[in-house]
Design goal:
mainly alpha, 2 helices, elongated
Length: 87
């Protein structure tokens, strides 16, 4: 049982932020040298990729719900007389 819905765009943006942080952590500990401008392309690319992933996930979710709704509405309505009738 999930407590909340899965959001792959946020996961992608978080991975980009963690990658940037890891690069600067390695620079701070002296393991390697990271240029100062590294965060700009990594975060820009990560946020762009997160936007694409979010859009694809949104379209797939809408398509899946539309297909489920179209298969549920194949029967006749329950009642067309009485208080439910449209006048």
């Amino acid at each position: 049982m999930l407590r909340h819905e899965f959001r792959p765009g946020r996961l992608t943006a978080g991975a980009a932020a963690l990658g940037t942080a890891a690069a600067y952590l390695g620079d701070a500990t002296g393991a390697w040298r990271t240029p100062w401008f590294t965060a700009v392309p990594v975060m820009s690319g990560g946020l762009f990729l997160a936007a694409v992933v979010t859009f694809v996930h949104y379209r797939l979710r809408r398509r899946r719900s539309a297909m489920a709704a179209s298969s549920e509405n194949t029967e006749a309505p329950a009642s067309t007389s009485g208080s439910q009738a449209i006048m």
